[in-house]
Amino acid sequence: MTVPAAQASRPPRIGLTGGIASGKTTVSDLFAARGVPILDADLIAREVIAPGTALRTQLFERFGPGIRRADGELDRAALRRIVFADAALRRVLEALLHPAVRARTEQLASQANGPYQLHVVPLLVETQAADRYDRVLVVDCPESLQWLRLRARDGLSEAEARAMLEAQASRAARLAVADDVIVNDGDRAALGAQVATLHTRYLRLAARDAV
Known about the structure:
The chain is an alpha/beta fold. The chain contains 9 helices and 5 strands; from the N terminus they run E-H-E-H-H-H-H-E-E-H-H-H-E-H.
């Protein structure tokens, strides 16, 4: 992917995406171990709806008492069940969250060091955000493996897991926007080798753009 001229003055941004339970966090941790700045949209989303924020108040007002735990905290699991069961409510949530997450991401990105940055964006394809990045890296695995990991990780029923997978972009749609692909269907050593190869590639990209 060619780096837009307007982006040449800042470090290259690699947009990392993949389906739920594909291994995005594991991959980003491997890049982080090499000193790469990581900006994770999911973690930033937690920050912008932290206790005391206006956005958290909006969530309680919009989605009702069902997402408030007995101790007053946000019940993320309940919110997740609601929005994955209703596409219209999922769009409402995204309309609230996405602008705040993008603004905070830009703020953090402007402060980050490193020759390049890895932006972890689970909904990169769904939000048609590929053009915001210098390269798109997709963490890929068979959908059957994704489904097994999701159920084991989150203790979901078959129906809940299926609903979450079907709510996301298809595997083919993700691969269609990929500049680079990491296949996560083996052990951590195999994953680490792929990360090492891409890290070298991205360092070369950064060095080229710095000239």
